[in-house]
User: Fold this.
Amino acid sequence: MHIQEGKTYLGILKGRSKRLYYAVVVFAVLTLLVNASRNEITPFFVWSMYASPARVTDTFPVYVLEYNDGKTFLAPHTWKDHKRMMFFYTIDQYCVLKDNGNKDPDEEHASHILARLHINNPTFLPSLYPSATDMQAYPAWLKRYMQANMGEHIDSIKVYRKWVQFGNDGKVNVHRNELLFRG
Amino acid sequence: MAPYRTAITRSVLAFYLLSLLWRGYSHLLPGQLQQPVLSKLHYDLSFWAVRMSGIDGWLVQHTWAGSLFGWILITLCVLSMIFIRRRGYIIPFSMGFFLLAVVYNMYLCHSAHYLGGMVVLSVAFWPRRDEHFELLWDGMRYYACWVYGTAFLWKVAIGSMFQWEAGTLTFKANLAEYLLHNPNNTLAHIYYFFLQHQWLLNVGHKVVYLAEGAFLIGFFTRKYDTLLIVMAFFIFISIYLFSDVFFAELLVIIFPLIPAKGWQKLSGMIPFINRAAAPAHQP
Assistant:
């Protein structure tokens, strides 16, 4: 079968298979609704990466992971790229929680949204977001995961948030150094 | 496309298999996460449903369950490549892959889109009839155009497209870590050149956006599909070099843009890729 010229995709689909037609229409409508609400519900994605204007600043945070007294975890590129993922995104989440009084700001926001839908104090909500206890357990997990991922014995870790600035020559200078935690 | 269903299915699923093996190597499969403690569910109702069902807890807190899940997924992928019309393999594989993507994003603590294309694309292999496969495969071509087309439209709607210095700011935010750790290598010196000529970063940034916008043409004609494939690679390489994001797995969306001629050529070069396995004995 060839896709005929001069007919729309949905038109052809409707003519060939009603069941497929309805499945595709439902997927398309849900994707459009999710895009209109800008709240992604997997597998109905909102492909809006880097769509918001970038924050205008001259100071940028960088996470530095040191282990075994002074070695720096470096994340090489290409095929080793994915090896660094769990480190830096989770450290970022740790900082979000830390900067928000050990609570996920999403939990508060979700609570407000549910209240608008007349769902007050839902008991399930705290189970969806990390607690202060989870935060306390995080350094030990990071050490455990690092050891498994790198295949190297890890005695100790230190995680820093360094605030860096760029000089006119493009070189990076550390403006402020903050020890986030050690483990 | 129906005559090349076997070649298409095998090629795309080989991509999935490589992704799964790469994730195994990178310690990203649920059984390898060492019982993570932090997660981020945002407001994604699928994440909420998986958390409330307790499935994610089983997969990441019990290493044996997570490992078994990973091996089942890899086995289903291989079986779906061999027996391409067996819905008993491909449908559970798609559902398992969806679960993998959800659990991965939950514990990554970021709603990343690395696996987004792959979550949707494998559904095209569900139909028993080749005619229905062809229709869904054609739909996936539109979905590929939707991914980058809407990425462009969102940038216009929300405003990144009209922020002149967005290129420099994005570059600095994403490459600061690399330059801090690698201040003296060749790539760092290339980056310093761009930072000294920031207009290049800002213009390049807009060019990448326009390359995304080019995918909107795909809704009206197939004439430029080969160009769109080139654009997808261009976007991938640019994002990798100037935003430090290695979106390799999203390249799966180029498969539906490959014209019939391309599949014909591939089938000629590697004959077994389009040769269906003998049907299993049915009692």
Observations:
- Chain B has a mean pLDDT of 94.
- Chain B touches chain A through 82 residues (CB under 8 Å).
